[in-house]
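Per reviewer request, we include the raw input and output of the structure prediction for the construct analysed in the revised manuscript.
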Amino acid sequence: MQQVATEPGGEELSLAERAYRAIRDQLVMLEIRPGAPINEDQLAQSLGVGRTPVREALKRLQYERLITTYPRRGTFATDVNITDLAHISEVRQELEPLAAAQAARRGTAIDRATLTDLLRDLESVDSGRHDAAELMRLDLRVHRATYAATHNPYLEDTLVRHDNLATRIWCLFIDRLPGMAGHVEEHRPLIEAIVAGDSDTAARLARSHVEGFEQAIRDAI
C-alpha cells in the first residue's frame, strides 16, 4: 500500500504528489537554478522517497515547462527566458481577473477564512520582517488560495502553472526590484474584495496587479 502524507487540512498526499510539490517549488523559487541538471537519485534522497515518485513528479514538471529532457544529455531545469514574459502576461491578464471574480462569487466560508488568514500575514509585510524569499512564498500562497477558491480545477491548474513561470522570472530579477514588498502588499485590497464578494473590484485589481508585475520586470531589465 502506498504511503501518504497529510496536510494540515487533512488532505492525504501520495508520495508522488509530495515529491511533485517539493520539486516544483524548488524550481519556481530558483533553489534549483535554471539550466541545472536534475538528478533523480539526489532528489529522492533529499525528499526521503523512492525514485518512482520522483520520476512521476518529473513527468508532470516537464509538461509544466519547469524541466526539459534532451536525448543523450539528460534532464535540466528550464532556462528563464525573458522573452516569455509577454506570452505569460497575455494569458494572465485574461485569466487572473476571471479567477478573482469567480473566487469572489464562489468562495466558501473555508476559502474566505484562508484568505483572511493570508490578509493578516500581508499586514506584516511593511514591517520589514520578511526577506525576499519569504515575500515570494507569501505571494505564491495568495495566488494559489485565490485560484483554489474559484472551484474550477481547469482554471486553477492553468493559472498555477503560469503563475509558477511568472514567479521564476520575478525571482531572477529580485535583486533589481526594490519595490517587491509593495507589489506583494497589493494583494490586500484584492483579498478584501474577494472576501467581501465584490467580483467587479476583484477582477479590476487582479488585472492591475498583473500589468504592474510585467511593467516592474521590464523596468528592471
